[in-house]
Amino acid sequence: MVSLQLLAVWNHRCGLSVFLPISGRSRSERVMQLDLLFHPESGPARLQKKYNDGEFMLLLSMVFLSCNLTGGSTDKLTLKYQIIKMRGSRGRKCSVLHQGWCGSRKIYPCILTHHIPSPECNFTCSMGYVNAECDACMCEDHVLHGMVFLPDNTPAAAAAVYVQSENLKLLTESDSDGGFRIPGLCPDGKNVLKIKKPYIVKNPVDKVRRTGQSVTLCCSAIGDPAPDQYLWYHNGTLLDSSVYKYNSNLVLRNLNIDQAGDYFCKVTNDAGSVKSQAAKLSVIASHEASCNPRPESYFIRLPHDCFQNATNSFYYDVGKCPAKLCTGKIDKRLQCKDSVAYCCSVSKMEVREISCSRYTLPTKVAVECGCSSCTEIKTTVRGRATAIDNGEPMRFGHIYKGNNRIGMTGYKGTFSVHIPADTERLVLTFVDRLQKFVNTTKVLPFNKKGGAVFHEVKLLRKKAPITLESSETNMIPLGDMEGEEPIAELQIPPNTFYRQNGELYMGKVKASVTFLDPRNMSTATAAQSDLNYIDEEGDMLPLHTYGMFSMDFTDETAMESLNAGKVMVHLDSVQVRIPEHLQQMKLWSLNPETGLWEEEGDFKPNKSTRHKREERIFLVGNMEIRERRLFNLDVPESRRCYVKVRAYRSERFLPSDQVEGVVISIINMEPASGYSSNPRAWGRFDSAVTGSNGACLPAFCDEQRPDAYSAYIMGSLGGEELEAVPSSPRLNPNAIGVPQPYLNKLNYRRTDHVDPRIKKTAFSISVAKPSLTTTEESNGPIYANENLRECEQAHYSAPHFRFYRVERDRYEYNTVPFNENDPMSWTEDYQAWWPNPMEYRACYIKVKINGPLEVNIRSRNMGGTHPYTVGKLYGIRDVRTIRDMEQRNLSAVCLEFKCSGMLYDQDRVDRTLVRIIPQGKCNRESVNSMLQEYLINHRPLAVNNDSGEYTMLAPLDPLGHNYGIYTVTDQNPSIAKEIALGRCFDGTSDGTSRIMKSNVGVALTFNCVERDVVQQNLFQTLWNSPRQRERTGIKRQQRESCIGQARVRGATQRRSSLRQL
Q1: Which residue ranges does UniProt annotate as crossing the membrane (predicted)?
Q2: Do 571 and 648 sit in the same domain of this protein?
Q3: In the chain, what are the helix, strand and coil shares in percent, each to the nearest 5?
Q4: What is the predicted pLDDT for the residue at 1029?
Q5: Which of 79, 188, 603, 670 is the most exposed place for a label (fewest CB within 10 A)?
Q6: Residue whose C-alpha is closest to residue 575's, from 600, 603, 552, 601
Q7: pTM of the model
Q8: Judgement on whether residues 870 and 786 belong to the same structural domain of the protein
């Protein structure tokens, strides 16, 4: 019999755990636990007992408890219980009824305040009391609530929950919703729940309002614990919450002009803070036009036979309306996001006739802009996931966004992901099912105006596993550069590995530790995430890496993943060449859901002599591996700048030739000791996507030493690398885009500067922070960190670096101008090449040429059957044939034509009238029999009287390679064209190729021969022609020459007169 003192409390607890040492028939003394469930208003309660250990228990014991009910006299509570004799394992239960009352009064809940442990227990507790097993502390007032999830974020039902101690103890199982409740665990620091900083899941969006109207800006974040404070800022100034009465939403009523500007929210919980993206609120006067009615200049390139003497160029200004937000019809309800978005667009167009050499070319010119509903767009990220070492594709890998699987890679590693409209930051994780590659998390930039962006995702190959003994101390080096010491080492103490259920693992361990060494330049593009973290103030700041490593531990059979307890990281201080980084070095881990790095711990200096080397100072950090995370040795870096880069269609570098959707990447180089201009490692990798005003890339910089930091910059579009402006034989500031003397200070060098055999697709610069006292450095191309807005809004004429596409023998002309890189430039018009901005259908026809020369072939596309467009031009496509690599006198071409189908009003179809015109002395030899039969059966049938060309009413059906027609539909025009072109090259309906297969899947065949002389110049005429034709030819050419010169002279005089005015 044991007497325990109990204290009555006036709450609604209905459970009590009593720990009683009792004598069993076994030799050792046993301890049992009784869970008494009291019902204050009812009679006797049910008693449950859990066996702790042993086979036999005492029968018919009597226990006496003292219970003080109301502070009065103490009565005796007698519980008489019977324990059933049974054999069983730990955790089996049996129910026993108790008898008796606490005097004549009702029983109230009681809490154990004093406990008599087993006599041999020496365990002590600073909080609570020792449990029955004498291996942990218990606190009756503390209850742990939790949830268990599977990797796909679904609740895990019936999951076993253990507490880790010398012997694993099963505490409970999760319910059908994955939830569990564990009472009694003390919050003594041994059972630690890691709190999570808040993360923004909804950012405020840009809005336009007139004075007197109202607006709502919304912000939302998640975290653990849930965020408990929202603060709103206007142009960097905190708004008074007592005045604006805001929470996660900010409501502004009766707006005035002064309230325009940038708004963002700051969210806080116990773990820290985070700031949202800034939203721009534009407030215009009630009588003011929300769009500038005058279009901006936008030049399109004309065909090669359409030179304009008036402008002395092949360009014509058709105008455009910038697709910026404007104010339209506003909902009466205040919403986080307007139900209909309004944008500035073309409200009036005029048809202009452009005179070309032998024909007139119609075009539509924007003459007035207005406010209308924005064009609906879709945004896509495409790419290819391949190994960094040899380009091996990750076949059929899984792609995750957070915990949700959203796609797979194909056989060649290709992927395509649709991006929801409200996405601000796209974080994707690539998981290789075959376990060849390290799980890779990438933050992929995309074009927020819509369209597709192509990314090459480089993957690090997993290191071959090594075998460890779990009972021994194990050392694993990090870094295997030839001729270099490891950057760091992992030290794994003995008995550190445990199974997923928490049970200690003893035996051999298969360990695969993969290290991304920044001393190896070729691995920079495999860097994960964008190396950013959130500081205490909630700002996103960059990190400078000294290496990333991932660890994969399994049992000997490689069937079960293992976790590891305390693991130490020894960082060799000799490898840290920047002295101030020694004090700032931290250990980080990557959060795959946010793509942000989270601090794991600090490093502390420690002298050590290991592996028979000289004594060195190592920085030692500790971590625990509880999940498959990537770890990083990083330093926060405060010296930051931005680099302005633009991309162009050609090396003419005209403003209208800028290309959007180009991925610009920058590799920040780590300076060697003494800030030498010859860096020894890379420290950071970043990417950005060009918009209508280029791109601004973050980079490390230094104001004192221009050569302290350097960077390599490269650009690509759809997987095609763009060329940088050359730096040899001498620098050309006008071509590079940066004036002297700042250009010399930046030390611009294209990669082939020394060796012309190297590719021309990148350049290096010294990232010299602009001096405040030097005027020519204040306007780019390098901007200080605080001047990001100036970088993003810089005028075209401001200094910047440039990339350009190497022009191919291909030309496109649309009567209604449209920039395929900017879906927002689409205009509602019956003559639009692409009638539907949400679905783009690309069509190609394959043409074979028998003849010794490459030939330019044109498709002229006009309305065929629609009453509004019949006889009117949609556009022109010119392309040059490609010689066959194996057969002489043979070439082929894949030529785009406008698909037949519905026009923009979706009311009636149009069979496009397509003329295929070889630009040479050619005769049509044959037409694909299946195509010919289809056209005959689907009338009307176009007339083909000219044997030097071919005319058809384009098919409505998506015919395949058997017809020589290739059709692909996609949400992005560039993707549709690229896929259709690849199939046409390959001559199949499902394959792709970049090598032209001239004899496969052909629709038309022409025989072409060399012309005698297309056009002779004056000297050829004098030399070759008979005397009679000579006089006639000379007079005609002289007359045409004089007329041409007069036109040029007259245009020059007119421009001179205008300048004088």
Answers
A1: none
A2: no
A3: 10, 40, 45
A4: 39
A5: 188
A6: 603
A7: 0.72
A8: no
